[in-house]
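User: Last request for today: this protein with inosinic acid, please.
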Amino acid sequence: MPVTILVGTQWGDEGKGKATDLLAARSDFVVRYQGGNNAGHTIVAGGYLLKLQLVPSGILYPHVTPVIADGVVVNPRVLLDEMQALGERGIDSSRLLISGNAHLVMPYHLELDKVTERYLGRASLGTTKRGIGPAYADKAARVGLRVQDLQDPKIFRAKLDLALKEKNAVLTKVYNRLPLDAAEIAEDYLEMGERIRSHIADTSAVLYRALREGKHVMLEGAQGTLLDLDHGTYPFVTSSSPVAGGALAGSGLGPKEVERVIGVTKAYVTRVGSGPFPTEDTGPAGTQMSEKGHERGTNTGRIRRCGWFDAVLLRYAARVNGLSELFVTKLDVLSGLGAVRMCVAYRYEGREYEDFPPHQSIVHKAEPVYEDLKGWAEELDGVTRFDHLPEAARSYLARIVEQVGVPIGHVSIGPDREQTLEVPAA
Ligand code: IMP
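Assistant: Here's the final one, the structure of the complex with inosinic acid:
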């Protein structure tokens, strides 16, 4: 059972890129299974910073085959730009495989994402405006175009004409925008299709065969549990399924292959875009998290909202993903705070909720019930062993384990590959 699933347990941006990058060293395949270029991984390796949106972070390892699987939505322009940027840094992306079943993000998806967000006004979701929601909506409505369509110009054009007939009517008549030109889009996309042709593969079959040969496969989630279409804080969610179940559906593998489900969590919480955030802190602690943690979106540059670690959320993530271990990131950011707080329950109308409340109104209005824990003054960036962490930092992590009921496997204390501590088994 050599499949490892790696998921975000909060609202995305948990530092998954670093965790995948580290674990990729022991994997043969690293697979993106959902989302698109709304994600953004920052990786620091060999002294340089790399920002990836579509290509799995495993690309940095020559022995890894990176895979963009069925459940991803692909903007081919972004993909090609990324492959070129990698090439310019001497990183070969010829191994990259792309599922023919993956859907394409089309120019009208970008346009619709922008105009619908504007139309929603104060009720807007704060999307990344990368066309992700509209692309998944077309997939569900069965009018999407897929990567495999790029291999057949006639089919591609027929599907595009059909889709554009409706999209142009909406763009011009509802949103007062100019119509898009089918011939132009087809020429552009088919040319890009030629450039990615050699990467298109039956990725589910490739992975299945690899597993039979005893190879290791890592399924790398984008976004996070609370942004999941089914299990997140709907409607302030993304349009795909980042949870562990989505990893299997999105890559075409069965549950019996899975050995580990690793939940990546920050030592605090962040969120971009709109929506409820019970432990949000707009005071000095939140400001420290934001500044010291460089909490600005990799992708859109937006400032992230920051707040205290929320064990209610994490217990929920442990449940809906079936987590086997945690990977805690950015513990170093909390150094120097006099005390650290941990939310252990929500309070609403006199009742305490230790489990994530089943109704959205409660999540929106709930007050966090905090436990105050001892902080630590020491900076952590030079620590090389888990047992060299300040005692208060270790107690904080131990409290996370007690609260969530899942062991911690790794703790990250800085952006470099070397700044990750293995946690000895209890
Ligand atoms: P969309 O995925 O662009 O449709 O945006 C929907 C919601 O998900 C918005 O609140 C975004 O800010 C959020 N979101 C999408 N991708 C990410 C991510 O990679 N990290 C954090 N939030 C994200």
